[in-house]
Design brief:
The protein has 559 residues and is α/β, with parallel strands linked by helices. Helices cover 36% and strands 12% of the residues. It has a six-stranded mixed sheet. The longest helix is centred in the C-terminal third of the chain and has 25 residues. The termini are far apart. The mean pLDDT is 96.
Length: 559
């Protein structure tokens, strides 16, 4: 729009994307400060009272949250290495992802005062307008009669190195103690943390208690189970990432799966699942064994209510499963180490609930009473999530053959490659001009699907009484996710090493497929060196094709 933000303080609405990406955008635009506010359009559901009489955000409610752009680095002073006493630390001004400008959040009561006085042209379209009684002019500066006014930001931040504590519990496996299933979630919170993380931390505690009770009765899982209560997640996934860095060599060799246990609810409408395609069938099967907690579905399964309320857009005979992005503690395990991962929770109605997150997210109003009175008064939703997370850990730890299905990965890869090609076809002339071909990627995806089908045919006939034969097949299943890891990482994001999935460069919360190709093509028409830009697209296609082909080789019969 041609507005010069250099030397200006900017104001931005919370919602849609990760707040840290907003700060990064402000820095790139030359701003010297940014104010973030929660607009009622994004944090106020129609017909619902503000807390404490309802679950909407009061006008003085302020959303907290970190605004780091770590890109998987963990502790910003020790990127790539565990923040132990003996590890070299960068100076704060050298740290990874720490904002160079002040950032401050406010509620919409205070934001309305600033926005009411904003000058400049009107908002370009309705998407720029929120629900406050203001014109939503975009600036710069204020309207004529107060045009000389200025905004000053006074932000007092404490930068210090502090000790954090992860709490780890282990049940040693009886048959394969060197194969690990990790159930991990954080316990630190912004203020009371009534939903985030307490509804998840409670599930972790209850699942651990249940497994402990089984152990006292003589049961022991085939594989080792690790229960992890992470610290400092809200400061940038620090506890989980530092533990992953400290134990990376062991985890790369021994970890089968990581199941995340952050918040159990972010709404109360239906189930939400984000996971690797390897877990699709297991989750579908397990949700058929759990009764739905939803009103009107008393005699139906969780799978039934999930399917009816949120079918997959590409195939409505199955429920929707989302790609893993970031924003919680699975990040280092999946995106950096290539450990099969998943997360499940209850969510809002994506068709009708247009507000971001739940309205009082990360505010002082996120209390136990909020959960008990409004979100889950019977605690049945949280119980259903506890059962599903517990069943996932049990099946992964105790099944003779690891319950992964590589064929679903093949199907997913086909969908992702078709999607990225469809995106590229919007530049059909450039594809011809610069001789860009997706054929190697399509060929590799086809080879992977064939290898996956053949692998599962062999798996059906493996001698279950031969522990070595079973172990060979299990190792192939365990390492298939690892096969998608590129040790060099993504361009500019070396700690995101998964070639198939990564958090979006433009919204950390969202998952992107074939992120190297996607990022290379993003906004490509505005690049000054089009030849160089399309050469990078070709390079990323070749990396993706090689990685998928190499992954297919790992599924072939052991020589």
């Amino acid at each position: 729009m041609g507005i010069n933000c250099t030397g200006k303080i900017v104001i931005a609405r919370y919602g849609k994307i990760f707040r840290g990406n907003k700060v990064k955008n402000a820095v790139l635009a030359g701003a010297i400060g940014i104010i973030l506010y929660s607009d009622p359009a994004d944090y106020y559901a129609p017909g619902v009272d503000p807390y404490p009489d309802g679950w909407n955000l009061p006008d003085r409610g302020v959303q907290r949250g970190n605004v780091l752009n770590l890109n998987g680095a963990g502790d910003p002073l020790t990127p790539g290495y565990p923040a132990k006493e003996y590890i070299y630390r960068y100076k704060v001004n050298e740290g990874v992802g720490i904002p160079k400008i002040p950032v401050h959040p406010i509620g919409y009561h205070d934001a309305e005062v600033l926005l009411y006085a904003m000058g400049g042209p009107a908002a370009p379209d309705s998407t720029w307008k929120g629900a406050l009684n203001v014109s939503y002019n975009i600036g710069p500066g204020f309207v004529r009669n107060i045009s000389t006014r200025k905004v000053r930001m006074h932000v007092h931040t404490n930068n210090k190195v502090a000790r954090i504590y992860n709490v780890i519990g282990i049940i040693r496996g009886a048959v394969e103690p060197d194969r690990y299933i990790i159930l991990g979630g954080h316990r630190d919170s912004w203020v009371f943390g009534g939903i985030d993380p307490s509804t998840g931390a409670a599930v972790l505690q209850e699942v651990a208690r249940s497994f402990g009770k089984m152990k006292t009765e003589g049961w022991r899982p085939k594989r080792t189970i690790i229960f992890a209560s992470w610290d400092a997640e809200e400061f940038g996934l620090l506890g989980s990432t530092e533990w992953a860095e400290e134990n990376a060599r062991v985890l790369q060799e021994r970890a089968v799966a990581y199941i995340n246990t952050d918040s159990s609810i972010e709404g109360n409408y239906t189930l939400r699942v984000d996971c690797t395609p390897l877990l699709y069938k297991l989750i579908y099967n397990l949700t058929k064994e759990i009764s739905s907690p939803d009103e009107g579905y008393e005699n139906k399964s969780l799978y039934d209510s999930w399917l009816e309320k949120d079918p997959a857009p590409e195939n409505n005979s199955y429920p929707r499963i989302n790609k893993l992005g970031s924003g919680s503690d699975f990040e280092a395990y999946f995106q950096r180490l290539g450990i099969a991962s998943g997360r499940v929770r209850y969510t809002k109605n994506r068709k009708t609930d247009k507000f971001s997150n739940y309205p009082v997210y990360h505010t002082v109003y996120e209390t136990f009473e909020l959960v008990e009175r409004f979100y889950d008064p019977t605690f049945k939703k949280q119980l259903a999530i506890a059962k599903l997370r517990g069943k996932l850990v049990y099946e992964l730890a105790d099944s003779q053959v690891i319950p992964f299905d590589c064929r679903d990965y093949g199907e997913a890869l086909k969908g992702y490659s078709d999607r990225i090609y469809k995106l590229a076809k919007k530049h059909e002339e450039q594809l011809k001009t610069y001789r860009v071909s997706f054929d190697p990627l399509f060929s590799a995806v086809g080879n992977f699907s064939e290898a996956a089908a053949e692998f599962h045919r062999r798996l059906e006939h493996v001698d279950r009484k031969d522990p070595v034969a079973v172990r060979i097949m299990n190792d192939q299943l365990m390492f298939i996710e690892r096969a998608f890891i590129d040790p060099l990482g993504l361009p500019g994001r070396k700690f995101y090493r998964h070639v198939i999935f990564a958090p979006s460069s433009h919204n950390k919360y969202a998952g992107e497929s074939f992120p190297g190709i996607y990022d290379a093509m993003f906004d490509i028409e505005s690049k000054t060196d089009l030849h160089g830009a399309w050469e990078e697209v070709k390079r990323q296609i070749s990396i993706a094709a090689f990685t998928v082909q190499a992954a297919s080789e790992t599924l072939k019969e052991v020589a």
